[in-house]
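ugh ok fine here u go
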Amino acid sequence: MKIKFVVIGKTVEKYLIDACNEYEKRIKKYVRFEYIVLKDLKNISALTFDQVKEQEAKLLEPYMNENSFKIILDEHGQVYTSKDFSDFLEKKIANLSKDITFVVGGPYGFAPKVVLKADGKISLSKMTFSHQMVRLIFLEQLYRAFTIMHNEPYHHE
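structure:
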């Protein structure tokens, strides 16, 4: 079993890159993990939001068609506490015989066809975060979920 984290566009801020790299390293102590960064779209200023989402859907298509449990990070998704997310993830790992793929879309959200192919939706918060920050927040929560599963002292309740 492997967990994949698919995002569109590279992270540009060095402090975010460093922090994401650190959490990626920590996560790999618990599970096979792959952080997949897809290329940014070019000339999006000439496109409508819907056209951008459709172009991004083409980039995401291979990951939405693969035989994995696909969860999109979406503002309209299920909101979990850290403990509840850990429990959710632990159950998925125990009960699925396939990989789990978490997907972050672009700044305008997902095209409807991507949403339809998702097996689940998770929201990190009711607040809005920058596209770049979402990566770090998710990676930290994924790491936290594994420390909770393993009864390690990272998480305090």
